[in-house]
Write a structure and sequence with these properties.
There is one protein chain. By secondary structure, this protein is mostly helical. The chain is built from 24 helices and 2 strands. It folds into 2 domains: about 200 residues, Up-down Bundle (Growth Hormone, Chain: A); about 210 residues, Growth Hormone, Chain: A (Up-down Bundle), CATH 1.20.1250. The protein has a two-stranded antiparallel ribbon. The longest helix is centred in the last third of the chain and has 46 residues. The radius of gyration is 24 Å and the shape is globular. Its main location: membrane. It is a multi-pass membrane protein. This is Major facilitator superfamily (MFS) profile domain-containing protein.
């Protein structure tokens, strides 16, 4: 390690595990290059309903002049000029059954929630790698099977299983990446981790354009996971998990491999880790629980305000993405434009969080989404290009907000309740994403209703952020007492805390 690197690392007060493998090197980059592509199927499966369940024009097959939803009409003819088939035409999800499409997506998002909780627990018990590999295999099998299931409720069940597995890949991969990347680079990599999701959303429109039968599209989106089965051989266990679980020998072996790849010294790794293991067996800070987030007034307020902003991200990000698919015009172009604008939004997020802090970034991005979506309520539904353009800008705002709340929450919650805090906030976000399909579908009731809801909620979220402390440049709170006191002094002396310190 060079003198410059040592000087740089010293200010981060790295533990021996991080010192051994370094903050960032070729080993870290190779692991991330292997893991990051799993975000492609995460995007495809979560956003796929835009095309799998797309509405198709239809008439009553017995009499085209008959009211297509009258009791006399029992079968329908579908316009196949845009899609050769969707689940709507497959199972006649029209008239009183039309909401079953939204229900299937809500159940899917519930599966993401279940998968995050289930595989998060498995990852804590068995390590990051085994649950990740299992989740990828389940995602492959259930995803491919979904393409051939002949019953609607079978489709829903298999999609739910796929969602559980997808939620599992998300939580295990993110934890693995954050556990190997040094603190100097975590801010950057927490955002870079989202970019394959943006690219997945963008390529979804291309897949759907060429695969216009929903069976073929579902198969095409699912078979990619076959490549991810290689994780069994390519993805290492988290050395930090190996150490904390008491498997010091394997941790040392993996750290030595990482150090060699990163051109770092290896001769002191074993002695440093063994000595560190002895110090960790003496005492330690007791872990907190969910109730600790709500016991004290300042911690309770910060938890509620942060969780609401996660709800906003879940509702508005997935809701606006689906709303764009309902906006008329060419669905492939609309989705591609919205997805293409997500990528610069995510990249801008890196600069904004570093230059302006987490607080101002989240206020700005939420306000951007809120104002652009509210503007749609005053635009005639026939002006498709303006509706899609404004909604796409709103999606840019959410593509900034989502990575921001991930990092913001991680720095706001104290160490003793950080996992349970982020886990709770993530569950709240999934509740928002479960509601999103029904809000996006309210356009059949009134044109202005979905954009009004997608506009007001981010603005409320932005207002709540004013009451949160800036976390950039501050040491992470460790105990519940630290969390309660963090930000309190500034509010007492200045009213609402604002800006960086």
């Amino acid at each position: 390690m060079t003198a410059t690197a040592k000087k740089s690392d010293s200010k981060w007060n790295l533990d021996p595990v991080q010192k051994a493998m370094g903050q960032l090197g070729w080993w870290h980059i190779l692991v991330c290059a292997v893991v990051f592509p799993l975000k492609f199927p995460v995007a495809w499966h979560q956003m796929g309903i835009i095309f799998l369940g797309a509405a198709m024009n239809y008439t009553c097959s017995s009499n085209s002049s008959l009211d297509r939803c009258s009791s006399e009409c029992t079968s329908w003819n579908y316009d196949t000029s845009v899609f050769s088939s969707t689940i709507v035409s497959e199972w006649n999800l029209v008239c009183e059954k039309a909401n079953l499409v939204n229900l299937s997506q809500t159940i899917f998002m519930f599966g993401i929630l279940v998968g995050g909780v289930l595989f998060g627990s498995l990852a804590d018990k068995f390590g990051r790698r085994p649950p990740l590999v299992i989740a990828v295999i389940i995602q492959l099998i259930s995803g491919v099977a979904t393409a051939y299931i002949p019953w609607f409720w079978g489709f829903v069940v298999l999609r739910f299983i796929t969602a559980v597995a997808t939620g599992g890949t998300m939580v295990t991969s993110f934890v693995l990446v954050m556990e190997i990347i040094g603190p100097k680079w975590r801010e950057l990599f927490s955002v870079l981790y989202q970019i394959p999701f943006n690219l997945g959303h963008l390529t979804l429109a291309g897949f759907a354009y060429f695969l216009r039968d929903w069976h073929h599209l579902q198969f095409g989106l699912s078979i990619f996971s076959l490549l991810l089965v290689s994780y069994y051989w390519l993805v290492p266990e988290s050395p930090r998990y190996l150490f904390t679980s008491g498997n010091t020998e394997k941790a040392v072996q993996l750290l030595e491999t990482a150090a060699k790849r990163n051109n770092l010294p290896t001769e002191n790794i074993r002695s440093d880790i063994e000595q560190y293991a002895k110090t960790k067996t003496h005492g330690g800070v007791a872990k907190g629980n969910l109730l600790d987030l709500f016991r004290t007034p300042n911690m309770r307020a910060k938890t509620l305000f942060m969780c609401f902003n996660w709800f906003v991200c879940g509702l508005a990000f997935f809701g606006v993405a689906q709303y764009i698919g309902h906006s008329g015009g060419d669905i492939y172009t609309n989705v591609a434009i919205g997805a293409a604008l997500e990528l610069p939004g995510t990249l801008i997020c890196i600069y904004m969080m570093k230059a302006y802090g987490r607080k101002k970034t989240l206020i700005t991005s939420n306000t951007l989404t809120g104002l652009t979506m509210l503007a749609i309520a005053f635009v005639p539904s026939t002006v498709t290009w303006l509706n899609v353009g404004l909604a796409s800008i709103g999606l840019v705002g959410m593509s900034i907000s989502f990575p921001t709340v991930y990092l913001y929450a991680g720095e706001l919650f104290p160490t003793v309740v950080r996992n349970v805090g982020i886990g709770t906030a993530s569950m709240i976000a999934r509740i928002g994403s479960m509601i999103a399909p029904f809000v996006a579908g309210m356009g059949v009731i009134s044109h202005w209703l979905p954009p009004m809801i997608f506009g007001i909620t981010p603005l409320i979220g932005a207002f709540f952020v004013f009451f949160l402390p800036e976390t950039q440049g501050h040491p992470l709170p460790e105990t519940i007492e630290d969390g309660e006191n963090f930000g309190k002094r500034n509010r007492q002396s200045n009213g609402v805390e604002n800006g960086k310190h």
